[in-house]
Amino acid sequence: MAGSGAFVELLEEDVYKYYFDGEWRKSASGKSVSIINPTTRKPQYKVQACTQEEVNKIMETSKVAQKAWAKTPLWKRAELLHRAAVLLKEHKNPIAECLVKEIAKPAKDAVTEVVRSGDLVSYCAEEGVRILGEGKFLVSDSFPGNDRNKLCLTSKIPLGIVLAIPPFNYPVNLAVSKIAPALIAGNSVVLKPPTQGAVAALHMVHCFHLAGFPKGLISCVTGKGSEIGDFLTMHPGVNCISFTGGDTGIAISKKAGMVPLQMELGGKDACIILEDADIDLAAANVVKGGFSYSGQRCTAVKVVLVMESVADALVEKVKAKVAKMTVGPPEENCDITPVVTESSANYIEGLVMDAKQKGATFCQEYKREGNLIWPLLLDHVRPDMRLAWEEPFGPVLPVIRITTVEEGIHHCNASNFGLQGCIFTRDINKAMMISDAMETGTVQINSAPARGPDHFPFQGLRDSGIGSQGITNSISMMTKVKSTVINLPTPSYTMG
Predict the structure, then answer these.
(1) pLDDT of 208-218, one tens digit each?
(2) Mean pLDDT of 75-98
(3) Do 366 and 336 touch, CB atoms closer than 8 A?
(4) Which residues, in sequence order, are CB contacts of 428 under 8 Å at separation 6+?
(5) Domain boundaries, the chain
């Protein structure tokens, strides 16, 4: 069950340990949490079920470690991050193996996720040195009624302890996108990985451990959400929460105290296809956007809003591409692999059955075996169907036919989500006008929605989130501005 030899210290009697104060430890609870392999639907790994008392100890240690880390020179912090990036890439295969078994990510995509994570950490080290190495200098005589007798120096200082909660679908990449900015900015990090993806996250943390970060600066706590979830997010020791996931984020934001929140939640990313669009390009992006990683991405295309005059052509092209997709286990690099849990598969099925009952056109036969759902395109979906509004997080894509562009924009903006959207047209003026009208954090022109490159700003409106991500924005969000004002004596005479 274990990964490579380098990871042997993480395991004891087939249970993965949690990470605290620079050491791998067993929980005093004596209990563990099982991780079910989505493909076999059998237990694959076990992780510690940590207690609230252990969380308290982690917070105390993190606070002490952070104070020393804040005094560590920027170049030194960057050096350690570069080392962690190299180690992540060196260990890409065992980490990817965990992703295949825990979240049924196709093997090649799993390796790509780890490499991308290493790149993100390196870029973050460089960008952090640039951003944080600059202060600001203000003089008082720039404001009416003031003389030049006050000087203001501003700098960015760390917040303290950052609680990082990544989702199952990118448990490594979306963990480092929180950890690296937090560390370069001088914060300490407490990572609570998702259950599905926890072992990949522990292996990733091990790379930071091997890089030689100070003890206590990074902790990784595993366990039951019911036991330690609210306890972590409402803990008085936490100074910032960075969360990626679904509805849970809304509950966290309501319960969290006066701390900065960075929330990236769900999406119902709309794809608007105009009459003058390159239909081949649109079809290729609809398939890529709708079905890559079995649609389990917040930036997946979740609804296609296509002009009636080109709808038949688009649907035929998409159907032809879907027919060529391979369906099966992630080990074989299939295009469509099992969704993460049985409850996810049941939820997706509920949306499909609702659409069937209300008369949607099935472009393929609905087929499911266990957690594996075959790719499905549903045409003639109407606004009274749940699938028009709810996020399936699976390989099921609704097509809504529209007669005006306004209709498409209205549907996009009527959603309670507003993460990303995309437009296919050859007319740049139309594209810009529609982009302005779409109430989403990002609009892609002539491409499917995507989170990266990882230094681009990434944010959502309404229920899709709070704040903005992307390396630069995350570093800024995980710091606060400190001003020091120097008051000079007022000269009693004018210098001649």
Answers:
(1) 999 999 999 99
(2) 98
(3) no
(4) 445
(5) 5-265+464-481, 270-445
| Residues annotated as catalytic (active site), given as ranges | 264
Q: 462-493 burial by CB neighbour count: b if 16+ within 10 A, else e?
A: ebbbbbbbbbbbbbbbbbeeeeeeeeeeeeee
Return the beta strands (E) in 37-135 as ranges.
Answer: 43-48
> In 3D, which of 21, 12, 19 has the Cα closest to residue 46?
12
List all residues 6 or more positions away from 344 whose beta carbon is below 8 Å from its beta carbon. Answer: 371, 393, 394
Mean of pLDDT values over 19-37: 97
The pLDDT assigned to 391 comes to 96
Residues contacting residue 175 through CB under 8 Å, at least 6 positions apart? 117, 164, 166, 191, 193, 201, 204
- Select the CATH number that applies to the domain covering 270-445 from these four: 3.40.50.620, 3.40.50.1980, 3.40.309.10, 1.10.510.10: 3.40.309.10
Contact 399, 379 (CB under 8 A): yes
Residue 2: pLDDT over 60? no
Cβ neighbourhood burial of 351 (10 Å; 0-12, 13-18, 19+)? buried
- CA torsion sign for 295, 299, 302, 306 is negative
Upstream peptide bond of 43 is cis (omega within 30 degrees of 0):
no
pLDDT digits (tens, 9 = 90+) for 33-65: 999 999 999 999 999 999 999 999 999 999 999
1: pLDDT strictly greater than 60: no
- Does the domain made of 5-265+464-481 have the CATH classification 3.40.30.10? no
Beta-carbon contacts of residue 226 (< 8 Å; ≥ 6 apart): none
- Give the separation between CA 263 and CA 251, rounded to whole angstroms: 11
pLDDT tens, residue by residue, 399-411: 999 999 999 999 9
Quick one: which of 408, 399, 467 has its CA closest to 439?
Answer: 408
DSSP codes joined into one string, 138-205: EEGGGSTT--S-EEEEEEEEE-SEEEEE--SSSTTHHHHHHHHHHHHTT-EEEE---STTHHHHHHHH
Do the strands 43-48 and 468-469 form a parallel or antiparallel pair, or are they unpaired? unpaired
Distance (Å, rounded) from C-alpha 213 to C-alpha 237? Answer: 21
State pLDDT tens for residues 258-317: 999 999 999 999 999 999 999 999 999 999 999 999 999 999 999 999 999 999 999 999
